[in-house]
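Morning!

This is the sequence you dropped in the shared folder:
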Amino acid sequence: MQRERELEAARRVCQALSQQIQSDALIEHTLRTALDTVGAEAGSILLADAQSEQLIFRHVVGDKAEVLRGVAIPWHKGLAGAVFASGKPEIIVDARADLRHYPNIDELTGFETRDMIVLPLQQWGRKPIGVLEVMNKRRGRLDQQDVSLLIIISALSTAAIEQVRLFEESKLAEMVHRLAGISHDVNNMLVPILMSRQMVTVELERLVGTLPPEQAAKAYPSLKLCHDALNTQREAAQRIQDRMQEVSDCVKGRRSLPEFTPCRVAEIVDGVVKILGFVADEKGLALRTEGLDGLPLIVADRRCLYSMFYNLVNNAIPEVPAGGAITVHGSLDKAGAAVLLSVMDTGRGMPKDVRDSLFTGRAVSHKAGGTGLGTKIVKDAVDVHGGQITVESQEGIGTKFLIRLPLEPPAQPSP
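The structure's back. Tokens below.
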């Protein structure tokens, strides 16, 4: 019986390899074959990134899988890190009792790991390229027989995964190298801007300080306006640096674990409006907010939400003709457990095929010079908060993005 199961597992993996499918499809097939073979509820494949010394969730099967995909953890932490370091498979009968278990992941997904098997993905005599995890056997407990089956699956798959991955990484490396050069140039260009800002601030203070008290009092409103503009300049420079890092992480298919803190949606959107308001004014657009001040605090990653709103508003601006409007609206759902947010514009709208492909693996940019990364950043931000996003659009009328975010994410990682 065991031998038949081993032969069937080998047959399924070999069949997938013979089809020469893409890397992600191969990884998904490997994982699903592993879960089906041992009868487990969930699993994941994490691949190593030598540059950052992290294990990155490349594919995940199970509840809240989207939340984990792309998340990176240090490759020396958790059971995954232990197996990656040792190169030896392990059976964990009770994950919660094992001090090496990395609870942040369960907390992030709301999934409760009971038993699990972790195996290295490695070719004979070589270092692992990642790990394969399977969790929670549906009947009974994961055991040594299951390990034997999984070793066959991982051994047959590793070489193919490595070959395809190396090919993809060679293409990605060139893109990342170019992006690093761009990021370096952008940072260099920001330095004189920030330095001149400081010089202008000091000079303004000096000039106002030389005025008689009566004239200084009259000049105060103008001084405050200048300070506000200069602070906006500083914030914009920081946002540019953050944006470059965000794009770099997105290109690499990686993101950090979120940092959840209580925050107000109105403050986050105000930051976006402060930056993009100048662009909207220049084009003759109205950039409005409605209902945000009345929203309760939500537990969220402030940076993720800022990126989400920034991308949605920034993408809308080129689509709206002069005299049009972009509105960010917020309300509380009837149950009082989530905020309902929308970003609406009176722009050109989207064709049905473009609208239906948004937030899917088929999403691409239809704008000149566009990369499509903005859409992925928005979707990742919504997913990490356990939210949902949909889009309504009609050509010639406009587009409306609808977002539902819980007041608290499904789980919050430990600090």
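Headline: The longest strand covers residues 40-49.

More detail when I'm at my desk.
O.
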